[in-house]
């Protein structure tokens, strides 16, 4: 019994509270999406580390550009920060480079962005497009690891490889910080503990959720901030769902549990880009609000792909859509008498779910400029 208690110690409330406070202290500040108004008014500072955020929307709503601005914020704010981009399509990497160049060249020192990756004090002396400036951009892009996947097993394998890399880096950093005698002493203790576990019957070795909870209590104290971006998760999960809904949901739930454990334990900012389904058809905008409407806007008929089940597996759910900018534009867009006339549209970012905050139903409008910058729009 004593040996079993050593493996699965009793946890008390005060220990959990202290550990939670320590984890919050270790988290890097939230990162910017590239727009001050969206960060401060809609996202309460930006996208948070240690959480899984899903951004859904149809093509042309700004998903990729938002993700690229978040990657740029992460690379600029964290000198050694890493990014793993798991791509199920061919990502426009040239646009990522252009976004990074634009963000560095703007050199914005606004105090409002001090905690969202928007302050570039270290690069303030560099002139845009000079050799030193471009070397800085190249060095940042070298910290972006790109994995191409084509199916769900490939997605799971890419995540497993990244997790293994983080474990190896942590072990290497720990070894380098210790002298030889201290390392051998700890190694000897670990070997003896492993022997005790091996002597126990298999059914007495805790596994599953209990092991995960214990691991979260021993959060690695790593100074390297990480970010995971999956573009687009619907491409690999959707095809799996078409073969078997039950098996597909089970595999997805298992994958998301592993991803959540990795995200929380490593304080990773995880971003899952998702598709949209049920998009509006022409001249159906004012026919009433359907029962499965997810947006606060009656004219937005779309919703995130992969169903309600997927929304329960993420911490924050964001939906992007395109709407006419003004009432006059709406009359032109949806009115039968004005067909053929040009009208202006804007992108709308709306928070559908926020597990740990009060951002639900907040929204903001924006446009993606020709140079890739995101500009907030007042409606």
SSE layout and pairing:
Blueprint: H1 2-7, H2 13-26, H3 36-42, E1 51-57, H4 63-77, E2 82-87, H5 93-106, H6 131-141, E3 144-148, H7 152-177, H8 180-199, H9 209-217, E4 226-231, H10 233-243, H11 245-266, E5 269-274, E6 276-277, E7 303-304, H12 307-311, E8 316-324, H13 327-334, E9 345-354, E10 363-368, E11 374-377
Parallel strand pairs: 1-5, 1-8, 2-3, 2-4, 4-5
Antiparallel strand pairs: 6-7, 8-9, 9-10, 10-11
Helix pairs in contact: 4-5, 10-11
Describe the structure concisely:
With 379 residues, the protein is α/β, with parallel strands linked by helices. It has helices at residues 2-7, 13-26, 36-42, 63-77, 93-106, 131-141, 152-177, 180-199, 209-217, 233-243, 245-266, 307-311, 327-334; strands at 51-57, 82-87, 144-148, 226-231, 269-274, 276-277, 303-304, 316-324, 345-354, 363-368, 374-377.
Textual characterization of the structure:
The chain has 379 residues and is α/β, with parallel strands linked by helices. Helices cover 44% and strands 17% of the residues. It has 13 helices and 11 strands. The strands form 2 sheets. Strands 3-2-4-5-1-8-9-10-11 form a 9-stranded mixed β-sheet, sandwiched between helices. Strands 6-7 form a two-stranded antiparallel ribbon. β10 (363-368) and β11 form a beta hairpin. α4 (63-77) crosses α5 and α10 (233-243) packs antiparallel against α11 (245-266). The longest helix has 26 residues, at 152-177. The termini are far apart. The relative contact order is 0.17. Mean pLDDT is 79; it is low at 108-124, 193-219 and 281-288.
């Amino acid at each position: 019994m004593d040996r079993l208690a050593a493996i699965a110690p009793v946890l008390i409330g005060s220990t959990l509270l202290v550990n939670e406070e320590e984890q919050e202290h270790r988290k890097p500040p939230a990162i910017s999406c590239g727009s001050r108004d969206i960060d401060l008014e809609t996202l309460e500072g930006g996208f948070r580390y240690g959480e899984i955020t899903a951004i859904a929307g149809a093509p042309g709503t700004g998903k990729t550009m938002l993700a690229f601005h978040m990657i740029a914020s992460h690379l600029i704010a964290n000198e050694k920060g890493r990014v793993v981009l798991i791509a199920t399509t061919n990502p426009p990497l040239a646009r990522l480079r252009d976004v990074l160049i634009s963000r560095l060249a703007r050199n914005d020192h606004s105090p409002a962005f001090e905690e969202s990756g928007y302050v570039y004090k270290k690069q303030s002396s560099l002139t845009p497009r000079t050799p030193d400036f471009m070397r800085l951009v190249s060095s940042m892009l070298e910290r972006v690891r790109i994995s191409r996947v084509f199916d769900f097993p490939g997605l799971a394998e890419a995540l497993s490889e990244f997790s293994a890399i983080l474990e190896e880096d942590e072990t290497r950093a720990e070894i380098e910080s210790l002298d030889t005698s201290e390392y051998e002493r700890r190694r000897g203790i670990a070997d003896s503990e492993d022997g005790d576990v091996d002597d126990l019957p298999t059914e007495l070795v805790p596994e599953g959720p209990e092991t995960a909870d214990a691991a979260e209590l021993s959060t690695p104290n790593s100074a390297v901030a990480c970010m995971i971006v999956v573009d687009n998760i619907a491409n690999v999960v959707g095809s799996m769902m078409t073969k078997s809904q039950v098996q597909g949901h089970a595999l997805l739930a298992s994958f998301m549990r592993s991803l959540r454990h990795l995200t929380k334990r490593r304080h990773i900012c995880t971003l899952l880009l998702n598709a949209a389904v049920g998009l509006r058809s022409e001249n159906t905008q004012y026919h009433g609000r359907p029962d499965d409407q997810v947006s606060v806007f009656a004219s937005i008929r779309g919703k995130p792909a992969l169903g309600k089940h997927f929304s329960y597996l993420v911490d924050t759910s964001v939906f992007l859509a395109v709407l006419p900018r003004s009432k006059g534009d709406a009359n032109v867009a949806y009115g039968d008498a004005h067909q053929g006339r040009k009208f202006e549209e804007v992108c709308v970012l709306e928070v559908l779910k926020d597990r740990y905050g009060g951002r639900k139903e907040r929204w903001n409008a924006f446009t993606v400029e020709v140079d890739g910058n995101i500009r907030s729009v007042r409606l």
